[in-house]
């Protein structure tokens, strides 16, 4: 391609970027995080090659420099062993504990036969039951107020449906925050609110979800900043605990939560807290990433009072492939240029 044609293509790309708020024309089938990274690269005149669209695998080139990236945050900067550590929740906890970082205490179980003997230790205690290595909140049950024997057994059976090793852990009180660490700094913090609707006094929960899902920021399969709320069996069971159904009509101003877990992938809302959280917790998040040898990492931290540096906290998970789009287009709050930080880490700035 001639130099003039290259300049013309860059001009066209820039024009497309300005007219579209978050999706990049021609790349809509890619995950939004990958689109965002491509968009930022094009702004900086970095050449982009799609190596595998289905896998969101790209190459970035500028002069003689080449970097290969998968799903926006899998890069040459993280080692294979750091990924394996973060993928294994039990190993992650042990590594963090060795560095003096607080994690929830609990037990690892490999069969229902192992569950029964330890049940007495957990009945009516705040707890979390989850598969050892799944993501997106899959197979997780949270009992903030504790649970009866039969509820714990059911939660364990659900977790075992997804993996042959599960964890029962203490529930750490507070709100959950996602810290996005890139290199030596926290570039974004979100409080993730579980899928919810606010009553108007006349509409059913089903209708309120339908209305909320019309937001253009919501879609499916990570091609939009937020995911649509799905009225599935998990939502029905969670509403049942509140003595509600999809056809219940909440009072005006009443907030109705449809799940306990706060994952964006299950329809949760993202609220930017980057400028509010004390530096102490940001430093802990960076230390956690360094402990596992990671350069790009999503740290899920429970904090009892996020505005108090002396508040209790606990890291419940590290994520080796954190989505960046949730920080770039939060439901509420300031947008963060995460793609720019990734490019800087890769040496393009």
Summarize the structure.
The chain is α+β, with helices and mostly antiparallel strands.
* Number of distinct helices: 11
Content of β-strand: 15-25%
> pLDDT under 50 segments (min length 5)?
14-20
Shape: globular
Strand order of the largest sheet: 14-9-8-15-16
Distance between the termini: 24 Å
**Which class do the helix and strand fractions yield?**
alpha+beta
| Share of residues in helices | 25-40%
Radius of gyration (Å): 21 Å
Task: Describe the largest sheet.
Answer: 5 strands, antiparallel
N-to-C series of helices and strands: HHEEEHHEHEEHEEEEHEEHEEHEEHH
Give the number of DSSP strands.
16
Mean pLDDT: 89
How would you characterize this protein structure?
The protein is of the alpha+beta class. Among the domains are: 70 residues, no CATH class; 67 residues, Dna Ligase, domain 1, CATH 3.30.1490; 73 residues, no CATH class. It has eleven helices and 16 strands. Strands 14-9-8-15-16 form a five-stranded antiparallel sheet. The longest helix is centred in the N-terminal third of the chain and has 17 residues. It is globular and about 65 Å long. One of its GO terms (cellular component) is cytoplasm. GO terms for molecular function: ATP binding; metal ion binding; ribosomal S6-glutamic acid ligase activity. This is Glutamate--cysteine ligase/glutathione synthase.
Task: List the keywords.
alpha+beta; 4-stranded antiparallel β-sheet; 11 helices; globular; metal ion binding; ligase; ribosomal S6-glutamic acid ligase activity; ATP-grasp_RimK-type
